[in-house]
Amino acid sequence: MRVIATAGHVDHGKSTLVRALTGMEPDRWAEERRRGMTIDLGYAWTVLDPLRPDEQVAFVDVPGHQRFVTNMLAGVGPAPAVLLVIAADAGWARQTSEHLDAIEALGIRHGVVALTRSDLATPEQLSSATEDLQRRLEHTGLAGARLVAVSGVTGQGLPALRQALHDVLASLPEPRLEGRVRLWVDRCFTVAGAGTVVTGTLGAGQISIGDQLELRQRRYVVRGVQQLGGDVDTATAVARVAVNLRGLDRADATRGDYLLTPGAWHVTDVLDVVLDPLLVEPTGQLHLHIGSGSVPVRVRMLGDRAARLTLDRPLPVQVDDRAVLRDPGQQSIVAGVRVLDPDPPTLRRRGAAAQRGAELADGSASGLRAQVRRRGFVRADALRSLGVTVVGTAGVLDRAGWLVSDDVWAAWRTTLERVVDAHAVADPREPWLTEDAARRAVGLPDGGLLAALVGDTGLQQAGGRLGRANVRPGVGASAGALDTVLQRLEANPFDSPGRDELLQLGLGTRDLATAERNGMLLRLTPDLVVATDSVTLAAVLLGGLTQPFTVSQARQALGATRRVALPLLEILDRHGITVRHNAELRSVRRPPNPSKMPT
Q1: Nearest of 318, 314, 311 to residue 288 by alpha carbon
Q2: How far is the C-alpha of 535 from the C-alpha of 42, rounded, in Å?
Q3: Is 0.90 surpassed by the pTM of this model?
Q4: 293 within 8 A of 267, measured Cβ to Cβ
């Protein structure tokens, strides 16, 4: 999927054009349809070419009225491309200019320009509007963009517009599919029977059912994912996605919030940036628009274009992020913002601000190289995207997408081994340290670095924990009893000992929980245990039955008691492997994905 946002003055036909392209109504509110004016963000999608049904495009339709520029920026901010709309019979207008300023500030270089209402324009008006547009776009990122005369009412020019959109979207760089996720929330609502859902444009990575994501420093499990109105197991960038989060209350999320891969993002309220383009001198109370959010910001100039921004609330920001600096009082865009350092040094000494400004003077290389020297690490893709090298910076290697100095890497490695060993001594019952605790203890800027760091030590990583290969989870005097249970489950994965039998063996719920956390068994209930691969194995065995099947047939196929079979079936239901028709009948809906099964 590709995503494109509209832009342009009010009443120039953005929603009409989206409606003509997709057959969908982008205006979601009755008030919008009554007034004939877009107020909030709208969403629609289509296939541009019937011969390429897999090439889907989603449109984020933005309001064009001056009063709703904040909503417009929330829609355009995360989008990689734009459809700039100008009415051929009306020409350039005030919000056309502000929207183009926003496009420039965000560094968007991929787009198509649509001359709408061409059926109402004379040939002279069309020629004049085309010449005026080419002149106004000449020194912008949209210089050379395809201009297409079109009518959303008659359909004139729609095939040419579809082809132009296909061409520009095909030219977009391939998104990053692995690694950390940051989803800027642009809509939040409640679905009866399902709970709270948030939506946004996923620019990188992927989100799957069962993933954990962080919102407002709390973790939530992804209960469901949708793309283009349909359920999917995994949503992959770039895409419009809807994410159903288990346990999230509607009041706990709003536009401008963000879903993050836990522990993978540096959240900050101080940034060193370059203002490019700088349209007017920053003064007064300004707002920073980034992603779908808007936050008040104080600006301290460090040079002609370098500046330090202090935000009213912290945000997850990385090097080379683009944002918009806007003056809400003057209702105008002040500058584009490119982030150079999301973790800048404190300016205490006399002359420190001037020195820092000089460091950032070229807008990229000096500041980023300074980060490597000062902090010992910086994201490699941020350097590459700005054409920056670290030639002359000795002892710096690319490790899991980060440029990290040898000194910092050695310090991280020493710290990791020390905290893992100390934890094993402090808690012999659960001697392996959780990945999150390890990352926090070491101070890693990205959870993705942990696996690379572990590979450089004598540690092992399994089941979300780290430890020494020769350090086995302890269960005190019950170690022999646990071995008895494990041998029994090895012979029959579904042969769970009864509660009385576990008590006779001396195994309590804490012993079983410890064994489960260390990947030795799986608990269906606090005292009902099966082998770790039982869920996947059950899905395979049930898939071989005549569909649909009864609980009794499932029990016989598994060779399990009803006490074990029912909880297993409920787990399969929750993961969408089986679908329940009634109290007795189920069918296997899709093959199991072992990587998504509970372990």
Answers
A1: 311
A2: 41
A3: no
A4: no
